[in-house]
Design brief:
Bound molecules: zinc ion, fe (iii) ion
Helix content: 25-40%
Largest sheet: 6 strands, parallel
Low-confidence stretches: none
Shape: globular
Number of strands: 8
Number of helices: 7
Number of domains: 1
Order of helices and strands: HEHEHEHEHEHEHEE
Radius of gyration: 17 Å
Strand content: 15-25%
CATH architecture: Alpha-Beta Barrel
CATH topology: TIM Barrel
CATH class: Alpha Beta
């Protein structure tokens, strides 16, 4: 490892129905990988049972918290375990999300966009929908939603901020409006004070790239937007995955600090000495 290990704040549990491993197993994997801090961030429930197959039910939230708290206490002195949530930004659900955030003493909340309207664009089951869509439109709609998510002020971390590229769909070369939407997204994040997530998950997906793209990292660095790291582990084997690659990308763009959260207070930690 070229850099000091940093907190990995993005990992799931089987409650979302597409991850495996107990929280203890995630914690053990973190210790084995030499990490000193992780945070759980399972997919939160959404109102009206929206896409319920891919997330916790509201009645599982307590159990999630109890398991995380017990594990946090059991690993005290060995590993810092933070308790967070990956909440969706989906217009119309803001009040529900705000209630859920207020109902517990979270260390951080990740805000992610996984839907354009009712379309779960990152869901492999609805991949064929891409054939019916204009790619530039999808990018513009996506970045607009991410901008809106930041503008709500509800989130500490903006999750995988160019997830729209997951399956390798690329905007057109003359995609000026895509670039404008991307720029507006970054301006909104800067204004909100939220951190942008640098995620290794894209390395494990068809796109084969870190989220976000180096151009976005460069512009975010120019704007002074802080970054938080996440592996988006859906299995204990993925904890800390690609950390060095993510930190290298940040480092190339002059960034030397990464965000840490406790009770929704952000602190910046140096991940290297130069
Ligand atoms: Zn997931
Ligand atoms: Fe996500
Ligand atoms: Fe996730
Ligand atoms: Zn350095």
């Amino acid at each position: 490892m070229k850099f000091r290990p940093v907190p990995d704040y993005h990992m799931h549990t089987p409650r979302c129905n597409h991850a495996c491993g107990t929280i203890r197993e995630y914690a053990e994997a973190a210790v084995a990988a030499g990490l000193t801090e992780i945070g759980m961030s399972d997919h939160s429930p959404m109102p009206g049972g929206f896409d319920a197959a891919w997330r916790m039910h509201r009645n599982e939230l307590d159990d999630y918290l109890r398991e995380a708290e017990a594990c946090r206490d059991a690993f005290a002195g060995q590993l810092t375990l933070r308790i967070g949530l990956e909440a969706d930004y989906h217009p119309g659900s803001e009040a529900y999300v705000a209630d859920m955030i207020a109902a517990y003493d979270w260390d951080y909340v990740i805000g992610s966009v996984h839907y354009i309207g009712d379309w779960g664009f990152d869901n492999p089951d609805t991949l064929d929908e891409w054939d019916k869509r204009n790619i530039d439109d999808a990018y513009v709609d996506y970045f607009r939603l991410v901008a809106e998510s930041a503008a709500t002020g509800m989130f500490d971390i903006i999750g995988h901020p160019d997830l729209i590229k997951k399956f390798g769909h690329r905007p057109s070369e003359e995609g000026d409006r895509v670039l404008a939407a991307q720029q507006q997204m970054l301006a909104a994040v800067q204004q909100s004070g939220a951190a942008l997530e640098i995620s290794s998950a894209g390395l494990r997906k068809p796109v084969g790239e870190i989220y976000p793209h180096p151009d976005i990292v460069a512009e975010a660095a120019r704007l002074g937007i802080p970054f938080a790291y996440g592996s988006d582990a859906h299995s204990p084997t993925e904890v800390g995955h690609g950390m060095d690659a993510c930190l290298s990308l940040l480092h190339e763009h002059g960034i030397r600090h990464i965000a840490a959260f406790r009770q929704r207070q952000r602190q910046m930690l140096a991940f290297c000495n130069d």
